[in-house]
Amino acid sequence: MVVRVIDIETTGIDPAADAIIEIASVDLVRGGGVANAKSTYVAPGRQIPPVASAVHHLTDEDVRDAPLLPEVLPMFAGADVYVAHNCEFEQSFLMRHPAWPLTPWVCTYKCALKAPSASCVVGRCSFAVPAAAHRPAQMHRHRASPQRPLRVAAGRECALSPAANQ
């Protein structure tokens, strides 16, 4: 069984009007490891608004030579289960594409709501993820790749939890 933790960054929050500009994922391995880590920029076919760049610090320059989404989707397809924080957001963008598989999703956001606190810091501590892995000193922005360690830990904890999809 392939359980893939996935994250995207976009030009905005409306899947009908905005586009994916970065995708990152890692597969959870039985026994606690991770494998198959990958990430890529995606050419959105439109400019990245300043308000979006302020969140993830990605600019038009970053994605200028990036591949188009249909070219990269196969790299991230193929899991039996997908794990994402607020998976409805990822789903709203990815499921719009016919090439994206219809597979089950686990939402770590919903898992976090059932924890004592939904705070990422509390989540990091609860899952024993080192602070340096969660937020490297040189990284002061919201991005798909640097957030992987927390999502992996959270995904591992709740991937099989029935409460995750309620």
Structure commentary:
The protein is built from eight helices and five strands; from the N terminus they run βββαααβαβαααα. The chain is α/β, with parallel strands linked by helices and about 170 residues long. The chain has one domain (about 5-165): 2-Layer Sandwich (Nucleotidyltransferase, domain 5). Strand 2 (about 20-30) and strand 3 form a beta hairpin. The relative contact order is 0.19.
Tell me the strand order in the biggest sheet. 3-2-1-4-5
Q: What do we call the CATH homologous superfamily? A: Ribonuclease H-like superfamily/Ribonuclease H
The residue ranges in which pLDDT falls below 50 over 5 or more consecutive positions are 121-140, 162-166
Shape by Cα distribution:
globular
| Number of separate helices | 8
Q: Mean pLDDT, rounded to whole units?
A: 79
CATH topology: Nucleotidyltransferase, domain 5
How large is the share of residues in beta strands?
Answer: 15-25%
The assigned structural class equals alpha/beta
Order of helices and strands: EEEHHHEHEHHHH
Number of distinct beta strands:
5
The first-level CATH class is given as Alpha Beta
| Portion of residues within helices | 25-40%
> Architecture, according to CATH?
2-Layer Sandwich
Radius of gyration: 15 Å
Count up the domains.
1
Describe the oligomeric state of these chains in a short phrase: single chain
Distance between the termini: 22 Å
